[in-house]
Amino acid sequence: MQSLNSGISQLSAGSGNLVVANQTMAAGFSKVMASTPTAGIQRLGSANAKVGNGLIEIQRHVPALQTGADKLANGSIALASGTDKILKETKIMSASLDQGAKKLQVIHTKAVNAAAIANPVHEVTKDISKVPNNGTGMAPFAIAIGLYVGAIALGTMYEGFLPHRKPKYALTWWASKASVVGAVGFLQTILLFYSLTQGNQLAIDHSGTFFLVLLLGSFLFLSLIFCLRLLLGGFGTWLVSIVLVLQLAASGGLYPTYLTDSFAQSLNEWLPMTYLINALRSLISTHQGITVDLVVMISLIVGFNFAMILRFQLGLHQSVIEIDSEIA
């Protein structure tokens, strides 16, 4: 019992102590609550919210950041490739400069070498066909013009169609006219030949060939002019002047053919004077072959005279043949 009482007394004393301790704890808890930083906690919560918003914004820009990173990677690859090319070209340039420096070391820096470098090309002019003066160079063209003008004069003064008497054959009719025209052409050639060789002292390598070319040129232009007059009448007489103008421009006697326009160049090979000028120029200065020129001139002479014989043959079949009364 005493033990029970003693326990009760201890329980009562312990309860008192518990009450005191509880009061002490309550007072301490009040102090703790009073000293708790509630404002800082609120600011911390607000800051946490801002951090969350910032993280969301960063996450939204992550794709753009990834795209920029890809472009940067591609640019880095291109930059690396370009850098490699630059390095290769730099090595090539360096090697070339080294070679150039070695070659420059071999060159002797003398005045003669400097002059050679300053003027590496020297023009050497060589005359293939040297002539003593401009008159000699222009002689083929002047001779051809003289022969053509002489043929025009004879064609104007001499009747090339009307017979002296009634003809029986076309060939004899043609021969009666051709004999007169040919004699005048031969006389013209003789006068021209001696005036050139003796009067003007024109230097010719082959005098016989030169005389033959002059004679063919005279017969060529006489045949051309009389053929145009016989076949075309008054129109043929007018056409003679047109042919003269064309030959002056496109025969290659006054200016080189390569300096004329395309029309004159295309017309050059169709003009009789072209071949006479080429033959004369070859005999006087260039000393080239004249076989083609001679063949062409002879062919034209034969062709023109054959056309005139046909015209005389047609004249035989006319009901009335006019006779040249002035000569008859």
UniProtKB/TrEMBL annotation:
Major localization listed first in the record, in broad terms: membrane
InterPro entries in the record: Phage_infect_YhgE_C, T7SS_ABC-Transporter
Keyword flag Protein biosynthesis: no
Compartments where located: Membrane
Membrane topology: Multi-pass membrane protein
Source taxon at top rank: Bacteria
Keyword annotations: Membrane, Transmembrane, Transmembrane helix
GO cellular component: membrane
Keyword match Membrane: yes
Chain ranges passing through the membrane: 138-158, 178-197, 209-232, 238-255, 290-310
UniProt xrefs under PANTHER family: PHAGE INFECTION PROTEIN, TRANSPORT PERMEASE YVFS-RELATED
Protein name: YhgE/Pip domain protein
Species the sequence originates in: Lentilactobacillus kisonensis F0435
Lineage start: Bacteria, Bacillati, Bacillota, Bacilli, Lactobacillales
